[in-house]
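User: Reviewer 2 asked us to show a designed sequence for the structure in our supplementary figure. I'm pasting the structure tokens here. Could you produce the per-position amino acids so we can include them in the response letter?
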């Protein structure tokens, strides 16, 4: 079975650009989209990730433009929250779990069990929003409102034909990635494993400060990592390399990247995956 993936924009998040890639100097403030993804083509629509409740929960704030509300984005596809078959959450950070309380309790939220467990420890402070976690606890005590995955022990789990959840192994301890079969290859919906796909895989920040010397990386073939993860560097780089076997890398805060044989070749700037590809410039 093949699906189409539609990008939803739930507003923007204000960050320092250095968060996107290790090696980028701090001091440049930018905005990135807080995206969700609507998977269509099965028995019922499936939503991946759910934006943030309000800019006040974000560290540096954000903006929600007209038409970027949760119900409004679904309505653009003729849907209400009650029409969803389920919501899959890559992880529970405040910009991914913010609108889950608007989803009826008879629509299950799919989450890796260790993600909810680690989120409630306070280890990352307010990266997890209090009200989002309280809502998830209410779901735990409502039969049918949450579906737990145990991917560390079970391995990848196909939750619908052509849609398989994998342990990401990066960003947070319990983050997951969702592999979706499309007519043009498999898409890897990876949450915050990438913030800048092209920068991570094709235009990595380089070291070297000697005048007249071309900057080089110690290991030129290694991808660049984000500056936003709680796992080890070894786990994070392994998680990034795991993503390279898929046709499309679909992050929450950037355009989807397109790969051929593990090499970044371009991006999709439109709202539908698969869709027209903008090829990267030759080095």
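Assistant: Here is a per-position design you can include in the supplement:
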């Amino acid at each position: 079975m093949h699906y189409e993936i539609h990008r939803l924009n739930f507003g923007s998040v204000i960050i320092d650009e250095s968060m996107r890639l290790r090696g980028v100097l701090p001091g440049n403030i930018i905005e990135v989209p807080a995206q969700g993804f609507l998977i269509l083509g099965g028995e019922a629509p499936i939503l991946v990730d759910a934006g943030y409740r309000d800019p006040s929960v974000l560290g540096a704030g954000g903006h929600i433009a007209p038409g970027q509300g949760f119900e409004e984005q679904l309505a653009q596809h003729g849907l209400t929250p009650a029409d969803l078959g389920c919501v899959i959450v890559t992880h529970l950070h405040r910009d991914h779990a913010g609108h889950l309380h608007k989803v009826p309790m008879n629509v299950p939220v799919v989450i890796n069990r260790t993600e909810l467990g680690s989120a409630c420890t306070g280890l990352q402070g307010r990266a997890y929003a209090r009200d989002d976690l309280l809502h998830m606890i209410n779901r735990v005590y409502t039969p049918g409102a949450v579906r737990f995955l145990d991917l560390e022990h079970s391995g990848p789990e196909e939750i619908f034909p052509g849609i398989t959840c994998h342990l990401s192994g990066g960003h947070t301890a319990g983050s997951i990635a969702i592999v979706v079969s499309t007519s043009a290859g498999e898409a890897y919906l990876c949450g915050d494993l990438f913030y800048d796909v092209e920068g991570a895989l094709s235009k990595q920040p380089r070291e070297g400060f000697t005048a007249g010397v071309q900057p080089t990386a110690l290991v030129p073939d290694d991808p660049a990592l984000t500056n936003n993860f709680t796992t080890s560097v070894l786990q994070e780089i392994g998680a990034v390399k795991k993503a390279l076997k898929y046709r499309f890398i679909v992050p929450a805060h950037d355009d989807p990247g397109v790969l051929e044989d593990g090499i970044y070749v371009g991006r999709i700037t439109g709202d539908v995956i698969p869709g027209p590809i903008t090829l990267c410039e030759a080095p």
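For the response letter, you might also mention the following. The domain at 4-279 is CATH 3.60.15.10 (Metallo-beta-lactamase; Chain A). The chain has a mean pLDDT of 94.
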